[in-house]
Design goal:
Helix content is 19%, strand content 31%. With 74 residues, it is of the alpha+beta class. The longest helix is centred in the first third of the chain and has 10 residues, at 14-23. The termini are far apart.
């Protein structure tokens, strides 16, 4: 049995999603992070009018360890 569960993100996940984005750093000659401040959900509106955000969280701690998104545009 998996120690992870997948579900659609909720507004209450906003802080954890922003922390997750800030902690994921692409390192190289220049380091890069993609952030969604001051609100993950509000910042995502730039990608499209309809978004589905999926999170992966540890069942035991409810800590978000990963996420993905699908955005629609006209």
């Amino acid at each position: 049995m998996s120690k992870f569960q997948y579900r659609l993100a909720e507004l209450t996940d906003d802080q954890q999603l922003r922390e997750r984005m800030a902690s994921d750093v692409m390192r190289g000659n220049m380091s890069l992070t993609f952030r969604r401040e001051p609100s993950y959900f509000t910042a995502n509106q730039v990608f499209g009018y309809d978004s589905d955000i999926m999170v992966c969280e540890e069942k035991a701690t409810k800590r978000i360890v990963g996420h993905g998104a699908r955005h629609k545009r006209l």
